Amino acid sequence: MTTYSLLILPGDGIGPEVMAEVRKVIGWFENNRGLSFDVSEDLVGGAAYDKHGKPLADETMAKAQAVDAVLLGAVGGPKYDELDFSLKPERGLLRLRKEMDLFANLRPAQCFDALADFSSLKREVVAGLDILIVRELTSGVYFGEPRGISADDTPGNEGGRVGVNTQRYTSGEIRRVARSAFELARKRGNRVCSMEKANVMESGILWREEVQWVHDNEYPDVALSHMYADNGAMQLVRNPRQFDVILTDNLFGDVLSDAAAMLTGSLGMLPSASLGAPMANGRPKALYEPVHGSAPDITGQGKANPIACILSFAMCLRYSFDLGVEADMLEKAVEQVLADGLRTADLMGPEGGTPVSTSEMGDRILAALSAQ
Ligand code: NAD
Ligand code: IPM
Ligand code: MN
């Protein structure tokens, strides 16, 4: 029997709360579907800083490189706001992404029918929505050099300090994430819309030209369009179902995916997969995490919606373990509890529903799995 190795990094804030529900789901698949997981757990973010004085220990980094897949909760929180930039919790997550070379971040936004009335947009705009944002994750302005804040804070020298970040892409970086988007599009609606700002940024011109090159030479069968990212943000809210796969850079992808979250009803619904090059077993190096953060405003209150983290595990089943049947089962179980009217606090609107806590939501998802 295959044993899948998993490294779980719950992180900070609601990270451990939502990850506890994923652990239940893992247990359910072991007990009921005969799957075998070798699960280890470690620290990332503020939790790692508290223990090791840095947001990701080298030993944890090495473990992440060695396992079949990493599951991450969330990092960050006000407790760490004053830390030196290099020690901030977010640096731990960015180090994982960079050193594992997880260049393709898949952020699907699906509107479950039971939540179509809950979205802040009208039902007829979001019902049936199923789009996939492919965000470049290891380059662009998040990592470009030069970067930093100039040290010149001489009193009286008002305006003398400079904050610098550099938007930088190579053609190779653009081509590889474009290939990921085209491959994924072929298994869906066969359409890719690439978003940048080629009207104001040279890196945007390069992005557009390279995406077009990959299309023309390798994926001429996929329908490709280009859009300026600001228009893309507007179109996402105006008529999101016009899109199938959206391909975009690191920063635009971060912003556009939070916007897309509200099309589904809540940021607590959006999962993600961060994929790199294939490992020796043919499967991609991978980290799975919800799109949301550590939600300090609701931490410790049993209010967090665990669905984004649970659906991230469904993506892990599909992309890292090739367990499409099990992934479908888990996604159906989520759909079922929503259809049954179960709602964590973030999903409670005027149309009502049965309020449930984080752990009750997890329990009901297990029950829905068992009922299949
Ligand atoms: P956030 O995503 O943590 O929270 C934004 C809002 O959404 C909050 O009102 C929160 O309560 C709500 N929310 C988020 N997830 C939810 C869930 N599962 N269920 C119910 N409600 C949910 O963003 P923020 O407040 O801007 O950032 C807080 C911290 O998280 C910061 O330190 C930030 O850097 C970090 N962050 C981490 C990640 C990550 O680890 N991948 C992602 C985004 C933000
Ligand atoms: C995300 C987060 C991260 C990002 C932060 C926490 C580093 O916002 O995963 O969306 O900006 O990529
Ligand atoms: Mn984000």
From TrEMBL:
Protein name: 3-isopropylmalate dehydrogenase
Higher taxonomy: Bacteria, Pseudomonadati, Pseudomonadota, Alphaproteobacteria, Rhodobacterales
Isopropylmalate dehydrogenase-like domain ranges (all copies): 5-365
Binding site for Mg(2+): D230, D254, D258
GO CC annotation: cytosol
Broad class of enzyme this protein falls into: oxidoreductase
Marked site positions, Important for catalysis: Y142, K197
GO MF entry, a single one: 3-isopropylmalate dehydrogenase activity
Assembly mode: Homodimer.
Co-factor(s): Mn(2+); Mg(2+)
Keyword Ribosomal protein listed: no
Record-stated family: Belongs to the isocitrate and isopropylmalate dehydrogenases family. LeuB type 1 subfamily.
InterPro entries per the UniProt record, alphabetical: IsoCit/isopropylmalate_DH_CS, IsoPropMal-DH-like_dom, Isopropylmalate_DH
Top-rank taxon: Bacteria
Cofactor note: Binds 1 Mg(2+) or Mn(2+) ion per subunit.
UniProt catalytic activity: (2R,3S)-3-isopropylmalate + NAD(+) = 4-methyl-2-oxopentanoate + CO2 + NADH
Localization (cell): Cytoplasm
Function summary: Catalyzes the oxidation of 3-carboxy-2-hydroxy-4-methylpentanoate (3-isopropylmalate) to 3-carboxy-4-methyl-2-oxopentanoate. The product decarboxylates to 4-methyl-2 oxopentanoate.
Pathway: Amino-acid biosynthesis; L-leucine biosynthesis; L-leucine from 3-methyl-2-oxobutanoate: step 3/4
PANTHER family: 3-ISOPROPYLMALATE DEHYDROGENASE
EC numbers, comma separated: 1.1.1.85
Keyword list, A-Z: Amino-acid biosynthesis, Branched-chain amino acid biosynthesis, Cytoplasm, Leucine biosynthesis, Magnesium, Manganese, Metal-binding, NAD, Oxidoreductase
Binding annotation for substrate: R97, R107, R135, D230
GO biological process, one term: L-leucine biosynthetic process
